[in-house]
Amino acid sequence: MTKHTTKPTGGVRTLADLRDRCTIDDETGCWNWRLAVATSRGGVIPMVHLAAGVLPGVDRQSTVPAARAAWLLSGRTLALGHVVYRHVCEAKRCINPKHCAAATRPDALAAVAATGRNRGKPQRQVSTALARRCMAKPVDVVRRAEEMFAAGVMQKDVRAQLKLSQKTAAAIREGRHMHSAGRQGVLRGASVFTLGVSAT
Questions:
Q1: 3-state secondary structure of 49
Q2: Does one domain contain both 108 and 52?
Q3: What are the contacts of 5-13 at 24+ separation with CB within 8 A?
Q4: What is the domain range of residue 154?
Q5: How far is CA 27 from CA 2, 3, 19, in A?
Q6: What is the pLDDT of residues 57-83, one digit of tens each?
Q7: Are 9 and 106 in the same domain?
Q8: What is the pLDDT of residues 147-193, one digit of tens each?
Q9: Phi/psi of residue 21, each to 5°?
Q10: Per the structure, how many domains does the chain have?
């Protein structure tokens, strides 16, 4: 059962103050933050404004990720250069210290990537791939551009004649376009480590 705690009053000074600003899910144990959040490529980041002296070594007012504040206010330590991240639950706004872990940023990103949480919905990935293919220049246009580049035609002239954007023309010239001849051969070779390298 999900429930709201009492309406918070005053500033955040303790772990209980943070918990009071969350919706508590009795089934999962998640503390879902219900106040301010910041946005990033990975989703939302619950943020909390703390008064000076609330966290050890912080002698001025500061805005920090709520999960980090909860981690420290729960009595846990945080090594220099480490971040706090969710590793137990799927709730994007959860700040329960028991659902979190601490690690360097690269290790945290790798751990989250291993869970598949940042991959998005499979249906969206499929539709995005199809949309990219639909928007891409047809194979015959890419081949014509490749022939023109091989003949020494300048990029601006190729762009003008084939109505290509600068980004698309550069990708074709460098063999990075999804329909580039060399790239198609590499894909048939099924090696992800040689993607973008000309086939022999």
A1: strand
A2: yes
A3: 11/49, 11/50, 11/51, 12/48, 12/49, 12/50, 12/51, 12/54, 12/69, 13/51, 13/54
A4: 137-182
A5: 8, 11, 16
A6: 666 777 889 999 999 999 999 898 999
A7: yes
A8: 999 999 999 999 999 999 888 898 899 888 888 887 654 444 444 44
A9: -100, 15
A10: 2
